[in-house]
Amino acid sequence: MKKLTQLCTGLCLLLSSSSLYAQLNLPADEGLSNRAQSEYAQLSDQMRFDNYKAAKKHLAWLLKNTPELHESIYINGIKVYQQFADDEENPNAQLHQDSVLVLYDLRMKYYDNEKSLIDRKASTAYKYYRTRPEKTEDLFRIFERTYELNGKDVGVNNLATYMDVTRKYNEVKPLGTDEILSRYYRVLDAIDQKEQQGGNGETYEKIRGIATKILLEIVPIDCDFIQKELAPRMQKDPSMAKRIVSLSLSQSCTGRTFFTDAVKLLIKENPDYALLRFLAIKEAEKGNMTEAIKYFNEAINATNDKSKKAQVYYDIAARMSQNNKPEARNYAEKALQTDPEFKKAYKLIGDLYFNSFNDCKEEKSMVSDRAIYWLAYDMYQKSGDQEAMNNAAGQFPTMSDIFTENKEEGKTISIGCWINKSTTIRRRKE
């Protein structure tokens, strides 16, 4: 049985080797062809056992004598040289780093796959060259080529690093402000696309923050710079709106008119929940509630997240709480219908009741007038706000008050005014 197993294994290896050799681009010369097959087989064997030092010798022969034999010699070659390039104690580490990148170039040369490989080469180049000032220009050119060929499809590893490479290059060969900004925009465009394709929003927000931080270390951008240099370009170049919004957020320029203008331009193409909510709040602050409600409703339609929808209903309720308590309660209840876990809406309703004492008291019955605090207490309890509950309970009538008016604790009592609710009679703890 053991011999049969060995025979089968050997046969499989033979068939595999025969298939592999059939794929090799062997030279016409028979002697060179036989040597190439032998060297390739030995390289494969050494790689199988992670014997990189021995593999290096066979790799060198293949690269010199049959560079177009098979793409796998470059795949293995990069792996071999990386072992030595990553060894910090190796005195020839930098030489091996350079060799790794040369192997990328040779693979692209012989197998016409620059677009798919240049991105990986850029990541490797950044790893090896970012601390080698003499390689800064080479590193910059590699990243430029990566973005030229891949654009928004560039790899995640080459997003924020592109800004770092731009910074390093700018220290050697200063770039103009527009040249630096254009590279920053490339990074943001790639991040935006990846987010739209379902990427991790938190990860990309972090990368966006790093890229922006590096930009601000290169170019002294502030609110005045945005207003003077960037805002005037919006009408001719609508894509500038997205950049102005991003930079304005980083520099706390959201109170400037140009930021609001940029947001309005941006939502025409992308009805973003956060931006629409921002506009709504701004309009409400100016007293334009009709316009604010319009943007609030658009924000609700721009998201499927029930918590975000509830937040907008709450926003509306909070802004109506002073002048239109019935409508404020209506919107707070909509928030709870949308998301029952949105408990701060209960707190808002409780505040509406608590603050309606002077509006609703009839001064005919102290107990009936104070019934409004029982309702407030109930809402505070649902919100989980113990402090507010204590405040409301402190306004309950005493047992003596209830008895004097010939009322009974625990009985139902109706409240009119704008509230039109029923609750139960309770006494203040003394």
UniProtKB/TrEMBL annotation:
Domain of life of the native organism: Bacteria
Signal peptide per UniProt: 1-22
SUPFAM superfamilies documented for this protein: TPR-like
Keywords: Signal
Protein name in UniProt: Tetratricopeptide repeat protein
Originating species: Fulvivirga imtechensis AK7
